[in-house]
Amino acid sequence: MKLDSKTPGGPLEQKWDKHRFDLKMVNPANKRKFSIIVVGTGLAGGSAAATLAELGYNVKVFTYHDSPRRAHSIAAQGGINAAKNYQNDGDSIWRLFFDTIKGGDYRAREGNVYRLAQVSVNIIDQCVAQGVPFARDYGGLLANRSFGGAQVSRTFYARGQTGQQLLLGAYGALMRQVAAGKVELHTRKDMLDLVLVDGVARGIVVRDLITGEVEAHTADAVVLATGGYARVYYLSTMAMASNVTAIWQAHKKGAFFANASWGQIHPTCIPRHGDRQSKLTLMSESLRNDGRIWAYKNKGETRPPGQIPDEDRDYYLERIYPSFGNLAPRDVSSRAAKRVCDDGFGVGSTGHAVYLDFRDAIARDGRDVIDSKYGNLFQMYHEITDEDPYQVPMRIYPAPHYTMGGLWVDYNLMSTVPGLFVIGEANYSDHGANRLGASALMQGLAGGYFILPYTIGGYLSGEKLPKIAADHDACRGAVSGVKDRINRLLSLNGSRTVEEIHKDLGLLMWEKCGMSRNEEGLREALRRIPEIREEFWQDAKVVGRNEDLNQVLENADRVAAYLEFAELMVQDALQRTESCGCHLREESQTPDGEAVRKDDEYAFVSAWEFQGVGKEPALHKENLDFEFVSLSTRSYK
User: From CA 263, how far away is CA 242, in angstroms rounded?
Assistant: First the structure.
């Protein structure tokens, strides 16, 4: 199958405007004749649902939370990028585009990334109009700060709660449409399958998490905004309920999965501190604006950090990457932290941590200034570790945080299944092999507010879509399949908990397909994953029944999906023998540990087609053509 990205031709800065003009449109009076399902109510899903309803479409929204406000977007702390150039420091749409292409190690589509940079300026205006309380400077203008991989200040923020405040803005817009009767909101409904009619996405199957009822819902198009899958590693900064189920079931129904192994390891997370821990906590990248990262210069150091003079500290990011220093991109910073710890210079009782130190910033700006910028983050760190970061440096270590891989989509954000659109972290589209900090919120809102509402109209206006109801044969078949799956899970009566088996999988994935990979380890993972999956189906125990709130059952279904998906993730990492962005193949690096890309062989998107559980998937390639930037070795030194 030849993948057609549908990226329009012409000058880069005119592609999106030309495409919008060329798209067929739906007459305003006809929009009310179409219905659209949106799954997920984070920034991407919430903004898309509100905007589609505002345009006149009938929208059904589904979330497994009890409120859209609980979506994982709420956890985003640091900020959102936009090429406003309020600081007059040389920023521009082109610079944001170039920083994102370069940050992603030249493994993203030029057309998509430039559109993202263009739309970014509209997002801030939209959110300010909604009342999002962005930080402002003394004169009342919107303030900015810097994030990794950029040498300008373009990140808008609301203290350390940017995701929460943006989500409240989208939530307000969404609930306005609920009150207007244009959005039908379904909470506590977990999407467990996609309904296809004649190969076209026409609905979903959901399970009510309170009653256990399984039901089908139909529409003229389906939008998945279901987030990322870093919980495949078990320990991650993601919310406990984050999962791969919705996009994995869509993949099994024909949607190609792109760059599955590209997961972001965030450099500034609170280190793991116990075997019973089930979640890790992010400390915002914004802290690297003022905090300096260092490790011991001498092995076996025993002095408390406050007693170690500068000459015995290794500010390794400033030493190795003097141009960007502590604001080197996430993939680069994470690998540097791992190297110093692996070499025996890590801090803390485990040696698997480095310091993030605000001593100099507090001395320079005063505690009140630092508190005004990061106070809630300092408080959170104090609550978790019982250490006061105003007095002693934070201990941090890299952890799984985000996934750049996801369902393949074209320029219209539609998957290889007609009528199935995928937005936000659930698709692979805009970040290449490494996402820059503060770009996730930008991508989610760009798709939801400004891109999907146009492109989905182009699809609906060009298709003849007969109305179908929930009693259609395709719906009944999908519902029956989901019920069989639930009954199979409930029949498991072994000796191990689902959590224990998920831990086994997560540890294997972290060690063999985590921050660095090699062929031997990946092949071992391919051998072990089916064994763990078999153990799950033979020896897991799922208690309770379907008709009640049963979180063991919910989790069992999600872990079952991870146990199938993990094989694809490893296959994806194995076939790409180059290093790029987050994907470090140990066979392809410089002597000092920098990634070595192979542009002649791997300048493409890996899009996988499902062939069956346990069977090798089929690889399709979308070649990446670079007309406007020159491929070069990424350097932040």
Answer: 14
Region label for 2, one of left (φ > 0), alpha (ψ between -120 and 50) or beta (otherwise): beta
pTM for the full predicted model: 0.96
Angstrom distances, CA of residue 431 to CA of 107, 165, 323 = 8, 23, 22
- Strands of the 263-270 sheet, one edge to the other: 281-282, 263-270, 394-403, 354-357, 292-296, 313-314
pLDDT(1) > 80: no
Residue among 34, 42, 47 nearest 63 (CA): 42
pLDDT of residue 25: 95
**How far is 45 from 171, CA to CA, in rounded Å?**
10
Cα–Cα distance for residue pair 238/277, rounded to 1 Å: 13
Per-residue confidence (pLDDT) for residue 77, from 0 to 100: 85
Q: Which candidate, 358, 353, 345, places its Cα nearest to that of 395?
A: 353
pLDDT tops 80 at residue 91: yes
Residue 404 has what pLDDT? 97
Q: Which of 353, 364, 354, 347 is nearest to 326 (CA)?
A: 354
Tokens standing for residue 183: 């959005």
Query: Distances from the Cα of 466 to the Cαs of 212, 338, 463, 578, in angstroms?
Result: 30, 55, 10, 47
Predicted confidence (pLDDT) per residue in 208-238, tens digit: 999 999 999 999 999 999 999 999 999 999 9
* Residues carrying an active site annotation: 330
- For CA atoms 590, 596, 600, 602, the dihedral sign is positive
Q: Distances in Å between the alpha carbon of 80 and those of 16, 150, 167, 336?
A: 21, 13, 12, 25
Helices (H) and strands (E) in the chain, counts: 18, 22
Strands lying side by side in the sheet with 189-197: 189-197, 200-208, 214-218
- For 407, the 3-state DSSP assignment is strand
Please report which residue ranges of 104-244 form alpha helices under DSSP H. 110-130, 162-179
> How high is the pLDDT of residue 574?
98
576, amino acid identity: R
